[in-house]
Amino acid sequence: MSPDQCIEARRLLDWSRGDLAAAAEIPVKIVNMFEADDLHGLASCEIFMRDALVAAGIKFPALGADPRRAPNAVSYRAPATPLPRPRARGNVEERQTVAAAWSAMTALLERAFAA
Question: What's CA 79's distance to the chain center, in Å?
């Protein structure tokens, strides 16, 4: 999933960044960083976001599809059972802690290898 695909998927669902963060159970800051193409090394957060969007009815292009034809193409198909609008869940704090620890570790490794 690209940042542009994420933005388009949120637009189709009429979700804010906060809605996506709540559905993916990650901090809003992670969504902001991903959409600004400033999220590196946090593939798990990208997976959480993609899973939340797919569960809400978003369909992404097949892997290996020619990106020149429609690089940001995503489509929406309403789920069989309507999903409630996302809201914060109990384990958001745990995911925020894990995401923060992962970010700190990634930054530490980047500094170590940059030297």
Answer: 19
